[in-house]
Amino acid sequence: MAKILLMYISQNSGHHRACMALENALRLLNRSIVSKSINSFNYTNPVLEKIINKTYMAVIKRRPEVWEYLYDNPVVVRKTQRLKDSIHRFNSAKMKTLLDDFKPDAVVCTQAFPCGIVADLKKSNGLNIPLIAVLTDYAPHSYWIYNDVNSYVVPSADTGRRLVENGVSEEKIKVLGIPIDPKFYTTKPKADIFNKYSLDSSKPVILIMGGGQGLGPINKLIALLDRSSADMQILAITGMNKRLYRSLARRKGSFRKKTLIMPYSESIDEIMEIATVIITKPGGITTAEALSKELPMIILNPLPGQEAMNTRYLLQRKLAIKAKDEREAVLFLEELLNNPDKLSNIKKEIRKEVNPDSSIKIGKLILGSVR
Questions:
Q1: How confident is the model over 115-126, as pLDDT tens digits?
Q2: Which of 42, 47, 80, 313 has the largest count of CB atoms under 10 Å?
Q3: In 3D, which of 314, 315, 296, 24 has the Cα closest to residue 180?
Q4: 233 and 146 in one domain?
Q5: Residue 45: band (very low, low, confident or very high) from pLDDT cuts 50, 70, 90
Q6: Within this chain, do residues 209 and 339 fall inside the same structural domain, yes or no?
Q7: Do 243 and 98 share a structural domain?
């Protein structure tokens, strides 16, 4: 009976959703699998996790240019090496206890922080546990790179090449896609979904998301869409942003267009099934989910760092359109709705890119690593 330890940081994050997707895939592949999914930062240092999460959110909201400078900056990486080593040492005792108690046959990390700690423990303690790094964005950063990682699961060949250019052995690269819940690769009758949400199947459905935290100018965007001459229905997911949800819910009666406001949802797969276009930030998991449903994306307000890099990747391959602000997003949307050929062309490009059954493929790799 294989035991698999999966690790991420931050509850309700893309890294967390990737771990949940892999757990579901592993259960589909082998019901006798025992898996444990751990928020590693919270497990090793819950106080520091809260401080770092609050600091990160404050920086990206108020001074995004600071995060853009810090993200994967070679100078910053070099100067913070000692700090990173100290953090790893400070957190390694608890991590070692976890490994000793659970005795995993393989460790899977969807974020670089726990990956680095386990890699260091493997080196310093002579541990022989397969360690699999699963990247959830299209551009890898330097904090992923450790000699003691056995396999790197990447979303694209380009992502893998960048790791190889930074010293990772080519044999370790596995181009299997970003892990999303296996339910995204099944389809449900669209008529049933339209009925479930009381939507009109003859009108376009515009899905609006701002990531798990409900970030971005969603209020302004919905107001502009509501005044648009284009005939559409609006479905907005506010994530964990309770203030945004309450604000939109209060105004719901004043919207002229059919508008649904939903908090964090476990049914994004069926919502994406009926959506015509999604306007969103390009987080890695949201992007992979949308691609799996051949859902054209209009990118709005990508965060500096990983989301900016994801945006470049998507634009280079003509998988999405980027708007500079909410007004331009509405103009691009109206153009797509008035030009079905443009929508169709984006979907054709998406079909070339999508990696079917990514979580199942990664699950097979994990099980294959177990000795």
A1: 999 999 999 888
A2: 313
A3: 24
A4: no
A5: confident
A6: yes
A7: no
Do 361 and 343 fall within a single domain?
no
Q: Find the helix or strand (DSSP H, E) in which 18 lies.
A: helix 14-29
Structural domain including 114 reads 3-178+357-369
Residues 245 and 139 in one domain: no
Cα–Cα distance measured from residue 108 to residue 97, given in angstroms and rounded to the nearest whole number: 17
pTM, whole model, 2 decimals?
A: 0.89
Task: Please indicate, yes or no, whether residues 220 and 346 belong to a single structural domain of this protein.
Answer: yes
Residue 216 Rama label (left phi>0; alpha psi -120 to 50; beta): left
Residues 203 and 153 reside in one and the same domain: no
The conformation of residue 260, written as its DSSP 8-state character, comes to E
- SS3 category, 153: strand
Phi, psi values for residue 263, rounded to 5°: -75, -160
Q: From CA 188, how far away is CA 211, in angstroms rounded?
A: 24
Q: How many domains does the chain have?
A: 2
Residue 321: closest CA among 341, 346, 356: 346
Task: Assign 50 a pLDDT band (cuts: 50, 70, 90).
Answer: low
Kindly report the CATH number assigned to the domain that includes residue 130: 3.40.50.2000
The whole-angstrom separation of Cα 136 and Cα 15 is 7
- Do residues 150 and 200 share a domain? no
CB 318 within 8 A of CB 260: no
Pairing status of strand 205-209 against strand 233-237: parallel
Pair 108, 132: CB distance under 8 Å: yes
Any idea what the Cα angle at residue 200 is, between residues 197 and 204, rounded to 5°? 105
Nearest to 306 by CA among 276, 332, 283: 283
